[in-house]
Amino acid sequence: MEPIRSWAALAPHAELQPYQYSPSALGAEEVEIKVAHCGLCHSDLSMLNNDWGLSRYPLIPGHEIVGHIVAMGPQVKGLQLGQRVGIGWNAGSCMHCHSCITGEHNLCGSIQPTIVNHHGGFAERVRAHWAWAVPLPDSLDMTAAGPLLCAGATVFTPLLTFGVKPTDSVGIVGIGGLGHLGLQFAMAWGCEVTAFTSNPAKYDEARGFGAHHVVNSRHSEEIVKAANTLDLLLITVNNLLDWSALLKTLKPNGRMAIVGAILDPMEISAIDLIFGQKRVAGSLNGSPSATADMLRFAARHRIYPQVEHFPMSQVNAAMRHLADGNARYRVVLDADFS
């Protein structure tokens, strides 16, 4: 097989460098995609630094991938050479466990993340099981679509999982790479939307993304003013917050969904849950079918991330831009290997 050029880190906290590897024979149910663009997610930075203890080196990050199919195994179903597809956090699953056969592939016990023991999308080509190579709607702009495959799926899936109705009220905590998309999806879903942000400079932007109300998340007294107003509260940040105050914003039977990778223990009072029958739950990135639904919904409502573009050859500058907190709101790398 022809070698694949990429950008890889050889150790934790190391800069990425040009790296070539020779892939094995293409699997019977695999597709190979020529990468056109790849979003840069904070999870790539976490994996680069081995924050979660999952990283193996050399590490090729990149899991918000869009491109064209250039090779297919003989048992690939429903896809065509040259077709535009996207790959998100996962590149494969077992396809035979209870979760897979009931459509919840993202809960598979043998899930294959795109950048965990697998080469990711900071490369000229990448591979995935055909079910996880999700077709892009024709009207979707591929240059900005990459972050939808991870960030978009992450904030869209709770709307499906928790049965959010257009008559519901939804709060989004954190107006960053995830949150700015969450606002757009919740608004297009028909919900009344409240943004919670610690940065007053983002108030007008939050309203522009769809928020009807904006609350300063640094001030508990401001949060409590929104008591008993929300059916769903989506936590997109990865830092500790005033959980008691935030739980008070939920209506009876309200749900707090955690999608930010908060590494520290969360101190939540049982009393805050018992009174009002409130629930706190995690939410994973979407299944292939949920991701396909998200992409169609995004295309229909013209929902896109706000992106900044870097050539993939400037990936280290892009990584620093993200690590320094300067991304507004997602970074997309444009493949420039040729």
Write a compact overview of the structure shown.
By secondary structure, the protein is of the alpha/beta class. It is 25% helix and 26% strand.
Shape: globular
Helix share bin: 10-25%
What count of helical segments does DSSP give? 11
Largest sheet: 7 strands, mixed
Beta-strand portion reads 25-35%
Residue windows where pLDDT falls under 50 for at least 5 positions? none
Give the terminus-to-terminus CA distance: 18 Å
Structural class call reads: alpha/beta
Radius of gyration: 20 Å
Explain what you see:
The chain has 338 residues and is α/β, with parallel strands linked by helices. Helix content is 25%, strand content 26%. The chain has helices at 42-48, 98-101, 142-145, 151-161, 179-189, 203-209, 220-224, 243-248, 270-274, 288-301, 315-323; strands spanning 4-8, 17-21, 30-40, 65-72, 84-87, 90-92, 112-113, 125-129, 134-135, 169-173, 192-197, 213-216, 230-235, 250-258, 279-282, 307-311, 330-334. Strands 3, 4, 5, 8, 9, 16 and 17 form a 7-stranded mixed beta sheet that branches. A 6-stranded parallel beta sheet has the order 12-11-10-13-14-15. Strand 1 (4-8) and strand 2 form a beta hairpin. The protein is globular, with a radius of gyration of 20 Å. The mean pLDDT is 97.
